[in-house]
Predict the 3D structure of the following.
Amino acid sequence: MLKLNGLKLLHYKNSQDAQTVDMPVPAVVRIPMVQHMGAPCVPVVKPGEEVLAGQLIGKSEQAFSVPIHSSVSGKVKAIEDYVASSGALVKRVVIETDGQQRWIDGTPRTVSTQQELVDAARDAGIAGLGGAGFPTHIKLAYKDVDRIDALVINAAECEPYITSDYREMLEYPDDIIEGIKTVMKCLNITKAFIGIEDNKPEAIALLNQKVQGTAIRVEALKSIYPQGAEKVLIYNTTGRIIEEGEIPADKGVIVMNVTTVANLHRFLTTGRPLTHKRVTVDGSFVTNPMNVRVPIGTMISDLLEFAGVDCQMVHKALMGGPMMGTALDTLETPIIKNNNAILVLDEAHARIPKTTACIRCGRCIDVCPMNLMPAALEKAYDQQDTERLETLKVNLCINCGSCTYVCPAKRNLAQKNQLAKGLLKRK
Amino acid sequence: MNPFIVSPSPHIRSDRTTQNIMLDVIIALCPALIASVIIFGWRAFIISAVCVASCVLIEYLCRRLMKKEQTITDLSAVVTGLLLAMNLPVTIPLWVAVFGCFIAIAVTKQLFGGIGQNFANPAIAARVILLASFGSYMTNFTEPFDYAGVDAVATPTPLVQLANGGEVPSLLQMFLGDKPGCIGEVSALALLIGGVYLVVRRVIKPITPLVFIGTVFLLSGALGANPFYQILSGGLMIGAIFMATDYATTPSTNWGKVIFGLGAGLLTILIRQYGNYPEGVSFAILLMNILTPQIDKLATHKPLGGKKVEKHA
């Protein structure tokens, strides 16, 4: 069997034993109207209005979108514009909390058909919580449902530092298993795989115990980055290759993140949508790494203060892991649904290495999980050679960053691929 | 508050740099350097020192003249100097060695754009040009442990002896380096130690050396020569381990490396058996260097799940 390329990274799972702690509601939350891939939501509340925790505050008429709920109870202060870390201009709802944390009356639901499951996922406000933020209900609404025979749960958590999904597995294994069962039942899926990197033996043992007597299998995967990349995970659990232009469902597979599926189950039992997110707080100089359950819309500066991080030391702040996370220009950025870590780096770790000439060592080729030729792609992009970029399949790059990581000349190969994709789109 | 550094992902990098790769190659060449001094005396060390110093100086001057950023700290010029020195006989006049450095660094490397851009291995190109231009100096070999330097008595190499049916050293002598030849190429043992070091440090993959040496072994055996003498003779070990694994001038995919090794092995044997020169490793590598872009094209990776693209008209 073909073995996919990958990378051995240091894991830095310093926070793995840090039990999740709840962050008290901050004085103000600023909840963005885009926390997912797809159309932005339009606020359905007005300044001055009282809201409850779990109340719908933003929605869109578009199907490819995910509704947004308030994470706190309080009063809407304003609706303001801000530039999200993606660079897009986004509206956000500013809510002054009242400290009561009064919740909506959630009604539990039972689902047994695909349509009911899709509606529930949408009403739960769930988007892929692993980081990509793909609307879960879109994924579950695949038309040719009979073709789907496998559910793959992404619990690889291959990025260094992050342990948010790991804590989900240790603290809420039953929510995960029940969520998986629900999805399997509604979509008539016969087998499920939970893919976990083998650097999490405790989670593997615990879930193995929980899946006894079910059609769910726990797959201990090698800790090779990017094990959690969708195509890599599908291949390593089911042996199926997702061809160019296909989505996993075309090959009979639905992939869901482990925390996503647990949250779906919690929505069904409580009726409360997604309003909080567990975030790993760690970094190069953090002495007390934590896993914090944060109300969505909390400012990162508030979170770091709660976690006792000295913001004066921060020279680089990341939303997400060190391999694929986004560097922030300010800590005045709200936590959103698909955040799973906030990492802070000190001066030495934030320093950008000097780029030198490519020596054609081929390390980038050896690590690319998609079997691309990053150095050749870079050359083609620099020459603006769109034909060659197409031949070399730059569109298949998953931006895992492995090529940039290994490059001894410190070239930004992964970035060039993203620029090249943009070039091809504009053409 | 510090202004934040904002850069594209990934935000961590491996410890490998061009400089520490080159440093590893220098370390790997040390056994051969030590062997050269033991076998041929201090003049071997002087040749190496002169070559390293000239290569670095020439690179410095080239970059200055071309108004390009200095690159001597990446240590690649040191590697070239050391490699070229290893490919010279102990009797070489120093000015010829310096001329070789000029060919290697100025002509082969810097005129084509510097590190990573050269189409031929600088040390190989220099050796081949010196061989063509200063044939008598380049083939003025002396007996091992005759520390008379330039005044030593000339003697043919085992490859010449093999071709002419003369007396050759024992296989053990061949392996240890007790034979006439270029200062760094004679001791297979020292070169293999360096090669193992490079493989362990993951600087090179063993593919090219194994295929190259294996091809020479099998082909020479098939043609009726003693294959053990063939693989321990001439510049095969140093060429296969240190020069056919040069990043810039050899294919970057694994299958490309196999093709390169096969081609270089085949050419070496053809030249040794049927050519005018007793030794063919340098020519073989140089020719394969020229073919490398074509091999790279042939051995391009197939992207995972990639569909064939229609060729544009």
Notes: Chain A has two domains: 1-22+103-351, 363-426. The longest strand of chain A covers residues 74-83. The radius of gyration of chain A is 21 Å. The longest helix of chain A spans residues 173-187.
